[in-house]
Amino acid sequence: MPTLVTGGAGYIGSHACQRLLRDGHQVIALDNLFRGHRAPMDLLSHAYPRQFSFVHADVGDTEAVTAAINEHEIDTVMHFGALAYVGESVEDPLWYYRNNIAMGIGLLDACDQAHDGRGISRFIFSSSCATYGDPPEGMIPVPENCPQSPTSPYGYTKLHFEHILKDYATKRQREDNPIALTMLRYFNVAGSDRTGMLGEDHTPETHLIPVGIDAATGKRDSMSIFGTDYPTPDGTCIRDYVHVEDLVDAHARAMERVQIGEVQAFNVGIGKGYSVREILDSIKRVSGVDFAVHETDRRAGDAIALYNDPTKIKATLGWDAQITDIDEIVTTAYTWLKGHPNGYAT
Ligand code: UFG
Fold first, then answer.
1. Is the CB of 344 under 6 A from ligand 1?
2. Is the CB of 239 under 6 A from ligand 1?
3. pLDDT value at residue 224
4. Which tens digits make up the pLDDT trace of 289-308?
């Protein structure tokens, strides 16, 4: 099935392209290369010359996206292209709203106008557990019906876009031209493709696992734990780390199983939480390096503990994380980053 992957040159988007290509689909990646990389596009073009193409454009460039959808007879859109740093969104919320919402509407216009106004049939959106903010008591592990109350502009951009998509799906239903809409709310995505072709290359890098690996490989002198006084067993925050290949498997299943006319939201996380200290211990085991760790103040906006209740996604999509051992997840990230000390520019 020809699929458009927005943000296809980014960390998760590139892994989604790879998975779809492996499954035999035709893939058109669209990216403005602001934070995405040309290198994974070249690698995928080389590996799948007849199935893959790249369009250099903004997600919100309705004309370019409509042309790509029509030219490649695209029926399914996976929308990854967005800004995704919580802290940055607090500093410059308007940029985040413009990019993640206004540009997203430009994309939806294209999805609506394409194919002589018939539009596309399937839309899968990268949402986030950041839409839940701090879940109320009794809501951890977090189910999909947990109240959504973000604590950052980033989380609000994802929540607002979920609402926009639902309204759009209702319009299509009213026009007797329904769409299959899936919103996947990711927990903490980690690791990289086990063949070593693709990896995680963010600038700036702020995520715990790559930052810890940078300390292990000597790219940084040390790293910090943000807060050791949380009400958790070891005082540090707890998160649910889902391997990127498991995450993209959820997209592949949503594409196959969510039916036209359905609107579905699923959390994607393994259902087990690890503390910051447990993650750092894993990085030390995997790398064999006892790097320096400082204990500093809490980082503003961090939730105490977030991990998924995977009941719904297991029952509905038959999805279950295949890689749940944290050392295995960290090993995939470590192997790529050690081999690519300057990311894709290596
Ligand atoms: N942390 C440290 N030191 C670091 C980096 C992170 O102690 O150098 C801690 C954080 O305080 C947090 C945990 O490690 O407790 C995980 O932090 P990350 O920055 O790796 O990930 P977040 O949980 O903050 O953010 C992730 C995604 C966001 C998403 C969010 C939803 O990156 O896109 O989950 O909660 F919005």
1. no
2. yes
3. 98
4. 999 999 999 987 788 899 99
**Considering only CA atoms, which of 21, 79, 77 is closest in space to residue 46?**
21
Q: What is the pairing mode between strands 238-239 and 274-275? A: antiparallel
| Residues annotated as part of the active site | 154
339 phi and psi, to 5 degrees?
-80, -15
- CA–CA gap between residue 302 and residue 237 (Å, rounded): 8
- 211 within ligand 1 shell (Cβ under 6 A): yes
**Distance of CA 299 from the midpoint of ligand 1 (Å):** 9
Does any ligand 1 atom lie closer than 6 A to the CB of residue 83? no
- Ligand 1 centroid to Cα of residue 276, in Å, is 9
Kindly list the structural domains of the chain, giving each domain's residue range(s) and its CATH number in brackets, ordered by start: 3-190+241-268 (3.40.50.720), 208-238+272-309+322-345 (3.90.25.10)
pTM above threshold 0.90: yes
Short-list 200, 188, 192, 210, CA closest to 129: 188
Place of tokens 């903004």: 58
What's the CA gap between 97 and 102, in Å, rounded? 7
Q: What is the 3-state secondary structure (H, E, C) of 201-249?
A: CCCCCCCHHHHHHHHHHCCCCEEEEECCCCCCCCCCCEECEEEHHHHHH
Q: Scanning the structure block, which residue is given the tokens 């690890």?
A: 274
Mutate which of 132, 239, 241 for ligand 1? The one with the most ligand atoms within 8 Å of its CB, which is 239
- How far is it, in rounded angstroms, from Cα 156 to Cα 193? 30
Please, are residues 17 and 52 in contact by the beta-carbon 8 Å criterion? Answer: yes
